[in-house]
Amino acid sequence: MKHEALSAPLTEVEADAVVVGLYAGEPLSGAASRLNEASGGLVADLIESGEVSAKLGDVATLLACPGVRARLALLVGLGERAGLTATAAYQAANGAARKLAERSRSRIACFLAEGWEPRLQEAAVCGLSVGCQGQDLYRSEKKRHPFAQVAWHGVPADVLASGQILGESVNLARRLVNEPPDRMYPAAFAEQARQLDAGGSVQVEVWDEQKLRDERCGCLLGVAQGSDQPPRLVIMRYQGGNPQAPTLALVGKGVTFDSGGLSLKPSEGMQTMKCDMAGAATVLAALQAIARLRLPVNVTGYVGLVENMVSGRSFKLGDVLVARSGKTVEVLNTDAEGRLVLADVLDVAVQQQASRIIDLATLTGACVVALGNDVAGLMSNHQAWCDSVRSAADRCGELAWQLPMFKLYDEQIRSEVADLKNIGEGRWGGAITAGKFLEAFVGTTPWAHIDIAGPAFVEKPRPWTDAGATGAFVRTLVEVARAWPPA
Length: 487
Known about the structure:
Elements: E1 2-6, E2 17-22, H1 30-38, H2 42-48, E3 59-63, E4 72-77, H3 86-100, E5 107-111, H4 118-131, E6 149-153, H5 157-178, H6 186-194, E7 202-207, H7 209-214, H8 218-224, E8 232-239, E9 247-258, H9 267-270, H10 278-292, E10 298-308, E11 320-322, E12 328-330, H11 338-351, E13 356-361, H12 365-371, E14 376-380, H13 383-396, E15 400-402, E16 420-421, H14 430-439, E17 447-451, E18 457-458, E19 468-469, H15 474-482
Helix pairs in contact: 3-4, 4-5, 5-10, 8-11, 10-15, 11-14, 13-15
């Protein structure tokens, strides 16, 4: 799908559809006013009668609208102008695309982002790109049909280019997560990393099972040993800055399928566990965007890839694993496996002199209990770094909330037979004790952990997103890289 600038007036543009935004609580203006005038007051009449709403995310289709050449006009609610944020821009464009992509259309003309600041325009271009791609990878009859061309009125070419890159990268993360686990296993994901669409500017290194043994990645290997699919650790290096400049490390959990191991999940809890590699997919997609945007920064992505399966070789409750760092870990729940994988991957990032680290993982159901499906949990050992990550998320409209990392939680993961145990005491504070476990493997390196268990995958569609993988926090990671290094 190609995004391009549009100069033709709304009434003259040749397209399958024109997209026009409506603000709540004010007279029609801009493209909405021009469409209303061309149609002889039709838009105003429909709003007055209640047939059309300017509520954020509402869409209304006008077929054969008088006064325009396009086959249809789509009216999109934007809410109040004063409340227009990156979140609103993304959701409005995404919802419009989802509606129009219900059938095949060649050319769409958007009069949605006129007069917006570039940050909001970019969010809209990204949102529209994401909205016309579904999770229907293997359906004979597709539910979503990407457009061949999208023309934007009033949006500069450089914003169109960056928005398209972000949208394509979010869609990459979504596709990787939406792939079935029989096709997206550790070696297959590693091959996707080798094929990264980054113009050759990302160097990819893959550690196979023997290399992982040589590197003493005992926790990662312990999780993987129950599966017939061998594990991988992938390192992706983008050097856009001075070789001596600080390096940002992005670390992703890549459990390509999580049965729970011997702590077996119920069938209902296992049905969506192909999504347990969303952290790894987010890191890979962010590296693609950062490289294609040619940001002048040094970023390295690290993803640990395993299947957590049940067999006679599976790691067991009571086992003691030796992490790459030398710390010993008592296993008391094999379904708390992601933190074990990340323990070794974080140690690799620390040893390779990462200046600061962000890890992303669908780590705990406890985080969803605490914050719901739309908000990620944010934890850190360094408040200034945490604030930088949170600010980046705020700027691009993704929701994260900081959880406390008080020292009293450390006591919950101390083992009587090893240095650590892989779960806390009982049900309470499970997202935080998981974060505290990870903190034990980063030393003094500034680190932030984002638990994306809620927002990474949705089981039912919403007005602004399709069901399945969402690509959450790809844009946040890119925004962090844009502001790198932090003050």
